[in-house]
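Chapter review: from sequence to fold.
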Amino acid sequence: MTREEARTILTQMTTSESLLRHARTVELVMEAYATKLGEDAEKWAVTGMLHDADYQAYPEKHPNVIVNLLRERGEVEIAHAISAHYTHWGVSYDTLLDKALLACDELTGFIVACAQVRPQRLEGLEPKSVIKKLGQKSFAASVDRDEVRIGAELFGVDMKEHIAFIIQVLQEHQLELQLQPQTGAQV
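The token string follows.
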């Protein structure tokens, strides 16, 4: 599946600006990890882009609608990774793609939330600040901290290095993601 085909599927089911941005951020992080690890960057990017594609339109059926659609199109590996991107669903983590999506989804969303409350956004955001915010249960309370921890463990990455990598990827795209420092903010 091409990214263009994936984007068409995503925009048919998702109109929420925040969900579209989340899809884009996870797409970018997954693509960067694939490149770093010598994996199929297009497949990893599409997986990141589509992981929540059905969430807005079919919240009670998420992720089954997108998973079934991908299986029908022969995208079995992507479908499996998406079906496994939340540990409570009880799906096995068979491939590095499965583990990467779990490791990147919640944490990428959390890092974006951290950036949004700072005038300088991503500029100067340090892993230690993100880790400190993870300890504050009231901040971005919907983010499942266990998912973040388990994802990093399964993916085999050091949490600080993982956070730094995600921040770097997001910084490279901060204009597109509208996460650049606010005008007049101290950088």
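Two observations follow directly from the output. The chain has a mean pLDDT of 96. The two ends are 40 Å apart (CA to CA).
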